[in-house]
Design brief:
Elements (H helix, E strand, L loop, with lengths): L3 E5 L6 H15 L2 E9 L5 E2 L2 E2 L1 H19 L2 H7 L3 E8 L4 H9 L4 E5 L6 H17 L4 E4 L11 E5 L4 H14 L4 E7 L14 H9 L4 E6 L6 H12 L3 E5 L13 H9 L4 E4 L1
Parallel strand pairs: 1-2, 1-6, 2-5, 6-7, 8-9, 8-11, 9-10, 11-12
Antiparallel strand pairs: 3-4, 7-12
């Protein structure tokens, strides 16, 4: 069951869409929404007579700006009547993405803004937040593109399937969201056959497992063709009118945003529908 939604503010244009998406989900899931902003407090400069006055003024300004960012969302949260909290998270030693990852551990799902268009600065910021949440929180992350409609309740969903731990985690984290979906496709691209791949019948085992959960599942295998895995998944999702894509998130946490897997990076940057990732 999904009862706690966590929305970290990134300072990019997609924040409003992420908050709105979380509110819509919360209204049907009877969930609580936490909208969070961080204050990264620099270590104070200490003189013999104490902390410099300018440092105290700077801390007050940082807190005031962060509080103002949060308060912008209070009217819509109160108007929609969902259970909610506006949280100001301060840290002396952690960067904002790491602070958010700690707070996300106490939620069922993080809802994060996706990059907006080709604004490189915003994309770099989002990748930092996404990588921290994906690799450090232990919780799934739903990325919501800001320039496309967020459709909810969920009717049509698509699962990008490989027999890996990451895909298994993502799929099972998403099951509470899939219960009311009328159509779910489990899609594998150029699946490998055999014991170290998808088995003799790619998708059959996971399709049977989901059917036992009472889900309406259709298993699909697609050829690789002359395109990336990410492009193949997104093209098929658009053709099927999917409202949510579920995918494993790959990469190396030590190098974070610079080492996101190829398909993960492409889905994060170019998806035109929400994508739920788990690592």
């Amino acid at each position: 069951m999904i009862r706690d939604l966590f929305v970290p503010l990134t300072g990019t244009p997609g924040d409003e869409k992420a908050v709105a998406a979380a509110i819509r989900m919360a209204s049907t899931l009877d969930a609580h929404v936490t909208v969070a902003q961080t204050v990264n407090i620099p270590l104070p400069t200490i003189e013999p007579w104490g902390m410099l006055p300018s440092a105290t003024e700077m801390y007050s300004a940082l807190r005031a700006n962060a509080t103002a960012d949060l308060e912008r969302y209070r009217p819509v949260l109160e108007r929609e009547g969902v259970s909610h909290e506006l949280r100001l998270a301060e840290s002396l030693f952690l960067e904002p993405p790491d602070t958010f990852a700690l707070h996300a551990r106490y939620a069922d799902l993080s809802v994060l803004a996706a990059p907006a268009g080709d604004v490189l600065r915003d994309a770099a910021i989002i990748r930092r937040f996404f990588a921290a949440l994906l690799f450090q929180s232990g919780r799934p992350v739903m990325v919501v593109p800001p320039n496309h409609a967020f459709e909810w309740p969920l009717e049509r969903a698509m699962v990008a399937w490989k027999p890996t731990r990451e895909c298994t985690d993502a799929l099972h984290e998403a099951i509470p969201l899939l219960c009311d979906a009328a159509a779910i496709e489990v899609v594998s691209i150029a699946p490998g056959i055999g014991d170290f791949g998808h088995g003799d019948w790619p998708g059959a085992d996971i399709g049977t497992h989901l059917a036992r959960h009472g889900l309406a599942v259709n298993v699909v295998t697609l050829p690789r063709q002359d395109q990336t895995v990410g492009t193949g998944l997104l093209t098929h999702a658009a053709e099927r009118g999917a409202q949510l894509l579920i995918a494993g998130g790959y990469g190396h946490s030590r190098l974070r945003e610079w080492m996101l897997g190829g398909a993960t990076s492409e889905l994060l940057d170019t998806a035109q529908l929400p994508v739920l990732f788990s690592h």
